[in-house]
Amino acid sequence: MENLELHTHKLKNEESFGEVRIADEVVAIIAGLAASEVEGVASMAGNVTRDLIEKLGMKSLSKGVKITMEENTVHVALAINIQYGYNVPATSSKIQEKVKTAIETMTGLEVAEVNIKIVNVLMEKN
User: Fold this and answer.
1) Strand residue runs (E) in the chain
2) What is the pLDDT of residue 121?
3) Structure confidence by residue, pLDDT tens digits, 43-86
4) Which residues sit opposite 44 in a β-bridge?
5) Closest CA to 119 of 78, 87, 89, 61
6) What is the model's pLDDT at position 83?
7) Where would a tag sit more exposed on the chain, N or C end, judged by fewer CB atoms within 10 A?
8) Residues whose CB falls within 8 Å of the CB of residue 112, separated by 6 or more in sequence, listed in order
9) Helix, strand, or coil here: 45?
C-alpha cells in the first residue's frame, strides 16, 4: 500500500510482524540534521520558497537536501553554507561521513553517495 502524499520506501526487515516504510522526507531530515551538526557548517542552503516558508516561522528540517532512492540505496545531495575560515575539503569530508553514518544507523538503508555543493561562505556576525 503506497502512501499517496509521501514518497515512501519499504525497509528490509527480516523478522517483522508487518511492513515498515520510510518517507524520503524523513531520510532528508536525518541528512540535514546530521550535516548541521558538523563544525563549520553555517546552515543548509535552500531555495526561495523554502526560505520564505522559514521566514513565516515554519522551519523546513530538510532544507538544502535532495534524496534519491533506488531499492534500499540512498543518494544524497546537500547544499551547504559554510562558515568563513573552515577548510572546505576537510569539512565536506566530515559532512559526508556524518550523513552516511546517520542515515545507515537510523534506517538500515545503504548510502551510495553524499554529494556536497558549497553554495555560500558566511562571515560570523560580531
Assistant:
1) 8-10, 21-23, 41-44, 65-70, 73-83, 110-122
2) 94
3) 888 755 555 555 555 566 788 999 999 888 999 999 999 999 99
4) 80
5) 78
6) 95
7) C
8) 70, 73, 74, 75
9) coil
Positive or negative: CA dihedral 75, 77, 83, 85:
positive
- Who's near 111: CB < 8 A, 6+ residues apart? 73, 74, 75, 76, 99, 100, 103, 104
CA distance linking residue 41 with residue 88, whole number of Å: 10
The residues with which 9 forms a beta bridge, in sequence order, are: 22
| C-alpha grid cell, residue 30 | 536525518
H helix and E strand count, the chain: 3, 6
Looking at per-residue pLDDT, the higher value among 41 and 5 belongs to 41
d(CA 58, CA 7): 21
Q: How would you classify residue 112: left for phi > 0, otherwise alpha for psi between -120 and 50, otherwise beta?
A: alpha
